[in-house]
Structures are given as structure tokens and as C-alpha cells.
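Crash report, auto-generated. Payload:
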Amino acid sequence: MLTSAVHASIRFGLGPRPSEALPSEPRDWLAAQLRGPDPARFPDSLPSTADGLLMLREQRHLKPPPGQSLVEPLFRADAQAQLDVLLTAEAPFRERLVWFWANHFTVSTRQGGTRPIAGAFVREAIRPHVTGRFTDMLLAVMRHPAMLLYLDNESSVGPDSPAGQTAHRGLNENLGRECLELHTVSPAAGYTQADVTAFATILTGWSIDRAAAEPGFLFRPRAHEPGDKVLMGRTFPEGEDGGILALDFLGTHPATYRHLAQKLAVHFVSDAPSPQDVATIARALQRSQGDLGIAAAAVIELPSAWHPGTKFRSPFDHVVATLRALDLPPGPGPAPGDPRPGGRFIPGMLAGLGQPVWGAPLPNGWPDRAVDWAGPEAMLQRVDWSYRISAHAEAEPARIAEASLGPLLRPQTAAGLAAAGDRRDALTLLFTSPEFQRR
Amino acid sequence: MPLTRRTALLGLTAAWSLGSVSMALADPVPGARIAPGARDPRFVVIILRGALDGLSAVVPYGDRDLAGWRQPLLPAAPGQPDGLLDLGGFYGLHPALAGFHGLYQAGELLPMHAVSAGYRSRSHFEAQDYLESGADHRLTSGWLNRVVGALPIRRDQPEGDALAVGLSMPLLLRGPAHVGAYAPEAAQGPSPDLYARVAALNAADRVTGPAIAQGLAARGFSSQALGAAASGPAGGPGAFPSLARAAGRLLAAPDGPRIAALEIGGWDTHAGQKRRLDGPLSQLDAGVLALRSGLGEAWGDSVVLVMTEFGRTVRMNGTGGTDHGTGTVAFLAGGAVRGGRVGGTWPGLAQARLLEDRDLDPTTDLRGVAKGVLRSHLGIRQATLDGIFPGSGAAGEIGGLLRV
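Recovered output after restart:
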């Protein structure tokens, strides 16, 4: 087995499955995934954003007792479906990019009533653009009701707008500030509080029509701050177009490209990537005017991205890689007659390991460095979880180890597996080995 | 552990687990009314995962070649402090098996020595699969499940899905016959020994090494404890006995299950065997007594089969332990057992008698033992037994194991 083949699956994909052959040409395999189309398929029954908003409306109207939430089933179905796709993904590199960009544009269910539409947000605003232009993704995100709810823009009102004058409501800077700081140019661009305020006023009126038959994005002219605004030295006109132009300006700003390049390098190269690697990715973004597929292709070409073991698996990475290594099928649990136990609800596993699906504590999303995930108790929880999931195994531990790590399996781990007293102990040792915990 | 009367009344078949010990129950006769005076036998299988060293559990101290192979592993002679518990002048029970000794003296324990299930290549995983499949290859169902299917009265309704959470069913009980699973998954955790091995494999890693060491320390595992006495099954010393007692109570209930499987690990003693066997043997000993106490009067018509996937090398290895071998000991216990003796045919430990110059030569096929029990105890017919243990024709049913 080629080290580069198993590494490609581990670093860029989601980890090998024993039932799938590894690519003979790893770079071509990755590049082909970027060319698309996206092969992932989801059940038609998953809720759209409009469905989720309707359910949210119903929920607030009916006020069901605790435990009978109307929106919770939507969240669970979407979370399970999007995680299930990972277990058998045809384009695992593309899937990793989906979760990378969804984390970049974090919508967390911890606030803002986003629970019923957090999944739809990823499917509608992130997934279609992971190999497209960054500005398209940015615009889709900023107009999506999930982001408008999460970062409070729905209720942000221009102080001098008609609504502001009559209702005595005002500006909420949250979305404008986070968009500058986290999503686009980052503080390295040197913007000021005046820029934050200006951008927030540019975005006034970007709201949600919750009362419509098909609830969704709505620009509310009556809440929009009148007049031109100056953001980072550029003047943007009044109206919805002003926001679109401002997002295009921010989304193509060289500081944004550097910021995105840094995050991509941290995700795909190492916790502390070299400035040269960051510059290479930034240059690819600059030359392609923010083509994320070309940026991802530039990452593949970095020699340093092919050094195994430099990245630590987050709980998400570890759970997905382990389930794939066990070749467990998608689905919430076993079919009748399947001797395996039920309760294989992946979102529950992730929550138990400290990384609930779409549940980051803050808008900056989940961290991406070893130090953030390798705390003592977190590591023991990972050991305990590995032990529990290893009860499900039927294949030979040595075969699973070979398929999931290939030449990256250390001799001492192989010896530990061989000396284990039963299959469950052997797999626990595999899944908690230093090499399996890396990607 | 939510072992409730209700569980038993529902006739639910169940598997529980706590640490590395677990049990599963099969219930072929819920609601079936036993006529007064009719037999109502119980059958329990305890799997010892990891390969018990039979020569340490039931020590053939009368064999003149024994000490030459493994003197440092041997307990003191019978009659001495912490000495062997004598079984009639040739064999002695390990001193941690005092409860077993009491059963032996009451005629309710029958160790079967130099047994093997016909498997020869010394891989734990394959051997456990074969042991549970009851065949010389891996099947998708276990022989105990086929026993459940062969019993006369069966339930038609599927067991409650609501309790089918958590742990996997042992292969021994998997198959078409209804055997539900229930386990408090959160209660499961690795044994101290496994934690120690995880920590060792990570020790040199600058990220995971210190984190795991600190995490274990914070949870109260001292490095000394992990390094030294880390041999017992997980879940604490009382886990297996309490599970066994619960199993006994469920089996004793009039509408409860009649067949159960339990398992206990900690037997893979490649190093420091003399010390490391104390914990698992004590738990096994206490577990069988707890099972008896849970069964109450039903113990009188019960058979417990204790089996392991293979034995260990006759010679001590270079680290005070033993490696994977072949022949070992199995136990039959229970009021229905014609015990108070050691069964099997002793092959001797002279060098020329060892299998491949290393292992206790198995002279009795474990499947023959199981067949003998199933025939006499549960009334399963010969033709059915051949289907329960496919390809075991050469392993003839052994008679005279039980009182009936």
C-alpha cells in the first residue's frame, strides 16, 4: 500500500474504509473530486429552510411541552443524514471541504433559534459553493436566514430608517463585525470601529420574512439605513445592492485571501503552517479571484501537505474515521434481526465527545489545533468511546489496522493489537493509538 | 443497572454489561407454566475471554513434570499457607477459587481437564469466534442461540425494542432465535489493564502521552496501580458477581429466562501471571457463588459451563507469564452436576506428550462436554445436537456428567 494513498484518504478525506480500494493515483483522485459534480445525495424528506422556519413558527404558536419539540426532529434528521453521507462518501475530500467551510461560516444551534435550519444552511449555502467562488458562498451565507438569526441581523434596524425612527429600535453590529473579523478580511486588514458600524448599517434591512407562506430572506427597505456608507475607504450606495457590492469587495479583498489561506493551511498542512505555504494558497485565490476549487487544488500541490501525522483528529474526525474503519453502514441503528446494538446516533457520539454537530460555542467555530482537543479528560473520553464502539466489530483488528493506517501503523501498535486478549481490546488500542489519532 | 422484576416478567431476554464483564439472557419459555413436579432446568455459559491458563486454575501438582516447566508460577502445596486447595491428591484448585472448592466438596463442581474446542491456531479472535460458533469455522450464529431455537416452547412475539440499546450480543447467542440485548452502554469502560496498555502505546507521543497520563491520574488511577495490579476485569471487583447474582435472580423467576451467557475478561497473562490471575479468578469464584445465591432453589437443577478459547503454554515464558496454547480446563458447576471429581483424561506433561512441544495436549473436545450437558440437562436430541455443533461428529457426546 502506498503511504501517499492512505495519507490522501486520512488527511484530505475522512479516513479509509476497508471495503473500498485506495486510489492508485492519490493526487488525481483528490483533483477529480474538485471537478465535481457533487455526488452526495440526501433524502428528499429533509427540511428546507422554509420548512424549518414554518416549523419554528408553528412551535412558537403551539408552545408544545418539553420533550415534544416540533423543530428537534428536523435537526436530528438533518444531522444524521449529513453525517451518514460521510460514512460512504464517494467524494470524501469534497465532504471535508463542506465541513471546513461550514465551520468557517459557523451557524451554531446554541443561540438564535437556528436549530431547525442549521442543517439546511449547510446544504443550501455552503455545499453548492465549496469548489465555486468564495463571494458566491459569502453572499449565500449572509442572506441565509440561519446566519441572519444566529448573528442577530434580522432585527438590526438603521437608526435613521423609517422603522428606526418610529420603533425606536437600532443597529445590531453582530453580523457586520463577525463578517469582517471571522468570515472575510480579519483584523489583520486594520479596519476600525467606524468600519464595523458602517458595514452593519450597510446590512440593515437584510432580514427574514417569517410570515410568508414560503418564509425566507427579505430585504426590508423600511429598516435600511438611508444614504451612502464608507467601509474601509470605499463608498457603498444605499439599498440592498450596497450590501451585495460590499460583500463582493470584502470577499475579493487580498486580506480575505490571506485569511482563508491561513485557515486552509492550518486545516490541511499543520497547526503552524509555513508563511510560504500560506502565501502559495493566497496567491491561488488571488489569481483565480477566489475560486475555492483552485485553492483546494493548490493545497493538494503543497509538498508539506503530504507529511503524515502533522494534524490531530478532532472528535469529529476521529468518530468519522473510526466508523469508516469499522465499515459501519449509515443509519440510526440496526435493522430488525441485525445482531448489532441500536443507538448508533452519530450526533450523540459527537456531543458526548465535546463537539456537538453545528454546536460550536462561538461564531469562530471549532478550533483546528491539537492543543484544543487533546486535553486529559477529553483524551480519556475518546479512549472510553473507542472502547464502546469497538464492541461492534466483527472483522479482524489486524485487517482494520492495515486498511485504516497501512504503512503508517507503528510496529508497537501492531504488536499491541496482536497481543490483545480479545477483538474489542485490540480495536480500542488501534483507535486510541497516536497514529490513528492523527490525520 | 436497571435489572428489574418487570424485565423478567416481560420475559425479556437481555444482555447486560459492566466493564469487561457482561451477560446475555435467552428466554425460550416465557409464560410457560411448568407442571408441578416437572423439571425446569437452567443453563448458564460463562465465557472467559483471553485464554485461561488451565494449569494454574486446576493445578496437576501430582504430575512429576509440572514443576520443571513452571515452578515460579505454582502456588504452594496443599496444606501450606495460600496453598492449593486439594482435589483428591493429584489436582489442586488455585487458592483464589475457595468458593469452587466448596462446590467441589458438595459434589457440585466438575472440572474437566485437558479440553479444547478443536481449534488449533492460537489466535484469540478466531478461537473465540469458533468457540462461540460451535464449529471449526466462524458462523454467523452461536451455538447457544441454536440451543434456544431447539427448545420445545418458543415465544412468537419479538422482544421489546425499547430495551434493545447498547452493547452487542456475544456471538454465542446471536442467531435467528429471539435473544434481546440490553446494556447500559455508558456504564462500560476499559479495564485498568487496557487503560495501561493505551497509555503505554501513547507514552512517547508529545500530545497524547501526557494527556492520557494526566487524565488517568485525575480519574484516580495511579501509575503504580496501572503498572502493577492492573489485571482485574473492569467495573470494579464486584462487577461480575453482581451481574451474576442479577442473572441468577432473573433465571430463578418463574417466568424468567432459562438460558444465560456471561463473560469475563482478564485472562491473557503473558507477563506477571502469578499475580495477575488472582483478580480474575477471585471474581469468577465470587461470580459463580453469586449466581448460585441468585438462583436460590433453582440452583438444584442448574448447570453452569465455564469455558475459555484455549489454554496457555506449559512452559513459563521469559516474562513470568505464559503464551497462547491449546489444552486447558473447563468447569461444570451446579446442583445438577455430578461433581466432586475431576473429569477428562490427563495426558501428562512429559516433554514427549506436549502438543507441538509446548501445549497441554487436549484429550477431550469441549463440544463433547457441551453436547453431554445439553442432552442430559435440556433433553436435546442427538440429531439436533449435530446441527447445533456442525461438523463435530468426531466429538462424541460425553455421558455421565450430570446426576440425571
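Post-recovery validation: Chain B is about 30% helix and 15% strand.
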